[in-house]
Amino acid sequence: MARKIIIDTDPGQDDAVAILLALASPEIEVLGITAVAGNVPLPLTAKNARIVCELAGRIDVPIFAGCDAPMTRPLVTAEHVHGKTGLDGIELPDPDMPLQDSHAVDFIVETLRHEPSGSVTLCPIGPLTNIAAAFQRAPDVVERVEEIVLMGGAYFEVGNITPAAEFNIYVDPEAAEIVFKSGAALTVKPLDVTHKALTTRPRVEAFRALGTPVGHAVAAWTDFFERFDMEKYGSPGAPLHDPTVIAYLLIPDLFSGRHINVEIETGSDLTRGMTVADWWRVTDRAPNATFMGDIDADGFFALLTERLARL
């Protein structure tokens, strides 16, 4: 039976690839896509989610606009990485499919209440504002979540937006704290994993060689943000962060990690948004997350290329 998921996202080129991977995989049923402000402001993330679904030929997937700002802070965006649209790299037509009328947070709450308890996985691949808002509004839905598989945080790889913090957690650390303290089953894909999933030239050309609109778009997107990351990290390619969340649902054995305690720093100016992962279990704080540390990158890119070929 297909695994039911909600993708909560701020597309972003790598978010787009994650959405495409989910839509290409029959083992996954995407109940809906909820947009949040993050990489770019909410009007663009909600638009980009629809562009990606139309590219995949999946205008049946309902898309909802959510929170346009973090819970207590001004929005920080990442146009310096993703370009002014969030999907720079290729010109794609404006979407025809509509946004749904209801708010993303309402959709998350209603879906978790309506579907059988323990049957819906939340897949946040942007700031955690929508998820935290749903948990605050309706605490009864937390125990109905099957699992939260998210891209966010960093430990050994340190931060990518500040010296200590990864972007998704940094944008709304208060939301992240709510989610990490919620008691829901959490699986985390930090930079420790995603920085091992680099878009090398052969991997990008494998997307292009698919010869499809999806293959061309994914190659163009990775070409675009790769330039920024290669200069920043001195690496042979760019990390493909968000698709690791969907890959985990399909082939969990691609990843390895530890069930540990992870706390979110919200107070310090110096380390705000840091995911303080007790990797060596040096505290007596109770484990609350499976924090992944490694990935089979070749297996990941093989899966991605094989699935994208289906669209």
Kindly summarize this structure in a few lines.
It is built from 12 helices and 10 strands.
Can you give a write-up of this model?
- The chain is of the alpha/beta class.
- Strands 3-2-1-4-5-6-10-7 form an eight-stranded mixed β-sheet, with helices on both faces. A two-stranded antiparallel sheet has the order 8-9.
- Strand 4, helix 5 and strand 5 form a beta-alpha-beta unit.
- Helix 9 (201-208) runs antiparallel to helix 10.
- It is built from twelve helices and ten strands.
- It has one domain (3-308): Ribonucleoside hydrolase-like (Inosine-uridine Nucleoside N-ribohydrolase, Chain A).
- The chain has helices at residues 13-23, 42-55, 79-82, 104-114, 129-137, 167-171, 173-180, 191-194, 201-208, 213-233, 243-250, 297-308, and strands at 3-9, 28-35, 63-65, 120-124, 145-151, 186-189, 255-260, 262-264, 275-277, 289-295.
